């Protein structure tokens, strides 16, 4: 096994986890308060109360249901969709640490002629990475899509909302900051793991050259076991790399400009009519 001094790392990781949970809890509470004081819910409540198609005795009940739905949406958004990226980020940090330490440790093991130990350690790490991707690729894909949709919805709602008060501005600003941070703790750490895993794989592929007497045996074993590149992906569709974050932000901005242009054209047509 790979001997890593984990006592201090475990203590630091626990602190980071508790701090992250505290930030998520405080963020959820602030979201609830600012949302119910903003004009976003008040506008929907006004539409329900003024609707001619809803009986009067049902309007108060529907308003209560609407408030509960918004509250549930915030709890789910800041629960599952905020905890999952944090968990994924901590997993990625641990995996990157092991891959980086493996590359450093391999140099020492090569001088000791312990190639079997190198292959055994890398086999365990490679299997762990495959297991993490099989388990997390779909949830992370759903989480990234939710983050991008939420960022777009916040910007679109803020741009085309008729009455914007200070509470609404605070809510939108907090939403942008939180979900952009969630995007930052999801994609870049996974890209860093893939980069570290690629370096570890290069170390393993170079092993036959370091052991000329065992060249054929090691090369055959490596080709049979490790020729397939393992990486963290989004639902087995896209390999997460550094450019994915820029592509996602660029797509978000492009669609924002498109919908903003369409909305401006529609408003101009309505005014002319």
What would you say this structure looks like, in words?
The chain is mostly helical and 273 residues long. It has 9 helices and 2 strands; from the N terminus they run ααααααααββα. The protein has helices at 7-37, 39-50, 56-111, 115-160, 166-184, 187-205, 207-210, 215-226, 242-272, and strands at 233-234, 238-239. Strands 1-2 form a two-stranded antiparallel sheet. It comes from Caerostris extrusa. Keywords: Membrane, Transmembrane, Transmembrane helix. The chain crosses the membrane at residues 15-36, 135-156, 168-191, 244-265. This is Gustatory receptor.
* Share in β-strands: under 5%
The total strand number stands at 2
Helix content: over 70%
Count of DSSP helices? 9
Structural class: mainly alpha
Q: In this structure, how is the largest beta sheet organized?
A: 2 strands, antiparallel
Major sheet: order of its strands? Answer: 1-2
Radius of gyration (CA) equals: 25 Å
Poorly predicted runs are none
Overall body shape: elongated
Protein name: Gustatory receptor
Keywords: Membrane, Transmembrane, Transmembrane helix
Organism: Caerostris extrusa (Bark spider)
Transmembrane segments: 15-36, 135-156, 168-191, 244-265
């Amino acid at each position: 096994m790979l001997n890593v001094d984990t006592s201090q790392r475990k203590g630091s990781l626990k602190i980071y986890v508790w701090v992250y949970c505290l930030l998520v809890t405080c963020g959820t509470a602030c979201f609830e308060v600012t949302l119910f004081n903003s004009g976003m819910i008040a506008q929907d409540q006004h539409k329900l109360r003024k609707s001619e198609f809803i009986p009067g005795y049902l309007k108060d009940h529907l308003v209560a249901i609407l408030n509960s739905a918004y509250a549930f949406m915030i709890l789910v958004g800041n629960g599952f969709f905020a905890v999952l990226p944090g968990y994924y980020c901590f997993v990625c940090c641990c995996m990157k640490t092991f891959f980086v330490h493996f590359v450093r440790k391999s140099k020492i093991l090569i001088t000791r002629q312990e190639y079997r130990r190198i292959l055994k350690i890398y086999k365990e790490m490679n299997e762990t990475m495959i297991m993490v991707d099989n388990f997390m690729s779909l949830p992370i894909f759903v989480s990234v899509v939710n983050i991008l949709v939420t960022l777009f919805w916040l910007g679109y709602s803020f741009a085309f909302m008729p009455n914007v008060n200070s509470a609404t501005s605070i809510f939108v600003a907090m939403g942008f900051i939180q979900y952009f941070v969630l995007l930052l703790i999801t994609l870049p750490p996974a890209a860093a793991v893939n980069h570290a895993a690629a370096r570890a794989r290069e170390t393993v592929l170079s092993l036959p050259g370091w052991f000329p007497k065992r060249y054929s045996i090691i090369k055959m074993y490596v080709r049979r076991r490790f020729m397939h590149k393992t990486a963290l992906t989004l639902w087995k569709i896209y390999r997460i790399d550094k450019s994915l974050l820029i592509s996602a932000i660029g797509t978000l901005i492009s669609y924002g400009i498109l919908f903003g242009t369409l909305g401006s054209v529609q408003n101009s047509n309505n005014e002319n009519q």
